[in-house]
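Reopening: structure tokens for the 6-O-phosphono-beta-D-fructofuranose complex, inputs below.
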Amino acid sequence: MALAIMCSGGDAPGMNPAIKKFVDYAFKMDRETYLVYDGLEGLIDNQIKKANYKDVAGIVHIGGTIIRSSRSKRFFEYKYRKIAYKNLKSHGIKGMVVLGGDGSFRAMEKFSSEFDINFVGIPTTIDNDIYGTEYCLGVDTALNVIRDALDKIRDTASSFNRAFLVEVMGRDCGYLAVSSAITSGAEICVIPEKKFPKKILKKRLNKEIKNGRKYILAIISEGTKRTKEMHDWIENSFGLDTRVSILGHIQRGGNPSVHDRMMAFDFTIEAVNYLLKHDDSNKVVVFNRGEFSFMEIEEVVSNKYQLPQHLLDVIKYLD
Ligand code: F6P
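Re-run output (same inputs, fresh job):
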């Protein structure tokens, strides 16, 4: 059985270390190994190439993905999924490792219900919003990019007596915002999962300003879609010149952190071992309380990720 690896949806740091480990480990297990370029689009267009060591040499430290990724509208249509299946068959590929998020897993669930392709997903997204796993590949690197930006923004905020409202990614999930607010000592954190206590914060921060506070650092999750409103509220409530900084796609780039490299290696070995041992896999590797296990893809995609209680508890201290 030949094996293939593919990235799908938003790229994330950690994809390259996973690709490297996949090729090395599959070779070690005497498997023919393929790289699917350009994600689901490449699956349809037969951008499927046999891998050799040279393809994956010197990539462990690089962000993004050397085999690229995509979001595909065509894959929603059966006729294109059939073409994708024929392409995989023509290379003798029966098992696939897919690095991606919810949308990618949904696509693979459909695909593997129609065709005999075994598939194991590795949750990979900076948003950390996939049901069933505490950790998604790429999150640690993204958090460190945000931390670096916030440390710098704090320097200028404190030197200039200003408020800064920093918008971070995460789609509809506040994980990046909460984790960053807590670890960067922000005064305000606005996320989709929690009502923002305007009255309480206005009272508390104004008291602090009276007692010498000179600046405010506020983090807002893009999923709230309230950046403009919160900017105006901060400026009016605290009388501080307020700037907005939208971090955007820099959060998705950068060299994978040590943690993401280690997690990429471990996730990948788990995924390959599973494919080698099972003939009908349709699973996602999940990581909880320090251990890997496997969850039916159906369960992963039909449930919504919830922010862990300990983060919701900690964020209360900001109120
Ligand atoms: O899912 C990863 C992510 O970076 C989200 O945080 C963000 O909302 C989205 O992708 C951005 O997507 P695009 O790259 O298509 O603009």
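The chain has two domains: 2-138+256-303, 139-252. Residues 8 and 39 are 5 Å apart (CA to CA). Marking as resolved unless the reporter disagrees.
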